[in-house]
Amino acid sequence: MKKALYLTSALVAASVLALGATDSMAASKAKKLKMGISGFYKATVGYARQGEGFTVSSDTGTAYTGYNEVDVKTDSEIKFSGSTKTNSGIKVGLVVELETDTNKNGGDHIDQSYMHFGGNFGTFALGSTIAAAAALAVNAPSTGALAIFGGDSVAWVVKPTEVKVSSVAGGNIGGNDKQKVRWISPSFSGFTAGASYVPDLTSGDGNMAANSGTGGTDASQIDLALKYSGKIGMNAISASGSFWQVDQTTTAANATTGTEGHSIGVPTTMGAFTVGAGWKEVSTTGDASEDFTETGTGVNVVKLRGTPLSGTKHSKDEEVHNVGVAWKQGPTQLSVNYFNSTMELATTRTGEDSLTKWTLGATHNVGPGVDFIGSIQHVRWDDELSSVALNNNKGTAFVGGVKVAF
Fold first, then answer.
1. Is 303 helix (H, G, I), strand (E, B) or coil?
2. Nearby residues of 315 by Cβ (< 8 Å), 6 or more positions away
């Protein structure tokens, strides 16, 4: 009996020592997080001509604005990223993106910069990164030198000042990198959910956001998103839906009022072809806190305090439609894409401002990370007063170049 007890005690002691040694060895082997480097460099050359009426109509006496027809543009980014695991199994990582073309993003050198924590609970991100609704969004397919969403179009075909559609208009919440907390769930039966909160969407001063009362100038934002990826037979299908809300003081004198937005996207791949469509709607929230005058068809109408701002000259109501089809065979991909964004009653005048573009894009891979890219894009900026040439512009851009990823 004593021998058995001694033997059992010896085995327990040996196990404890062995486990202790294993933990000690694991701790000694653990290393600090190491950062890796990746990124891309895109260089393009293109030709674009502005609408003749748009340039000539700016003539005041002997002076008018003309634009070059040929341009060279570059876009590049270096990404530093790395991750490690804690003793409890939680994955911790860092991402810092360096914009190496300072003419992008208003001259900022740093794009995204955030820390993320991942486990069975999903992944949390803290810092400057895109919203969950943007990270989970799927859209109509496109390829080539010019993106369908964002500021590529305005870089070639000039947007008239009176057109209130955003120069970076897109089909979802967009990629705003303001400081936020973001959560994305693990995938379950093809479904992935996400949510974000931005305390201060409009300012980067580091102060507490002033986004309420009658004198608030800042805005906060929340967003929710759901994505599905799966197969129906031999076809791959994806879908996403999102909702976001911007909370800000809604006074008639303040052009940056609160908004609510919704977007959906559904692409599907059938063999070599991918087809897809997307839709977005943004509506203005809140009521006017002071009286103001609305001009319609030549008649001045006084809007009283408490009037809903949606559908007035102070609204940011917007609707977007996007449809595309792409074909891929080996190293070559082609796409055709249609995009339209409208803002109703962007000023006191009846009507709508709009941005419409048709894009034919091509990408051909010539080696690891090296692609030849090209696009033909027709862009049309339309103001509510279509009869005023200076407020409208249209043109076609022919752009080609090389993109190198590393």
1. strand
2. 257, 283, 284, 309, 344, 345
- For residues 12 and 311, what is the distance between their CA atoms, to the nearest angstrom? 77
pLDDT (0 to 100) of residue 55 = 75
Taking CA atoms, 386 is separated from 303, 319, 378, in Å, by 26, 19, 18
Instruction: Determine whether domain 36-205+219-286+312-405 maps to CATH 3.40.50.2300.
Output: no
141 contacts 33 by C-beta, under 8 angstroms = no
SS3 assignment, position 105: helix
Residues of the chain below pLDDT 50:
1-26, 28, 105
Ramachandran class of 190: left when φ > 0, alpha when ψ lies in -120 to 50, beta otherwise: left
Q: Which amino acid is at 148?
A: I
Put residue 201 in one of left, alpha, beta given phi > 0 → left and psi -120 to 50 → alpha. Answer: alpha
| Structure tokens that stand for 295 in this block | 């001009």
Q: Where are the domains of the chain?
A: 36-205+219-286+312-405
Provide, rounded to the nearest whole percent, the portion of the chain with pLDDT above 70.
Answer: 81
CA dihedral for 95, 181, 218, 202, sign (positive or negative): positive
Q: Rounded to two decimals, what is the model's pTM? A: 0.84
Report how far apart the first and last C-alpha atoms of the chain are (Å, whole number).
68
Cα–Cα distance measured from residue 223 to residue 204, given in angstroms and rounded to the nearest whole number: 20
Closest CA relative to residue 24, chosen from 14, 16, 34, 33: 16
Amino acid at 141: P
Q: For residue 403, what pLDDT is reported?
A: 98
Strand partners, 377: 359, 397
Q: Are 243 and 223 in contact (CB under 8 A)?
A: yes
**What is the pLDDT, as a whole number, of residue 26?**
46
Q: Name residue 325's amino acid.
A: V
**Number of neighbours of residue 389 by Cβ within 10 angstroms:** 18
Residue 296: predicted pLDDT: 57
CA 246 vs CA 72, 135, 223, 259, 365: distances in Å: 37, 18, 9, 5, 41
The label of the residue with tokens 């300072």 reads 102
pLDDT at site 206: 77
Q: What distances in angstroms separate CA 130 from CA 67, 177, 368, one per listed residue?
A: 34, 5, 28
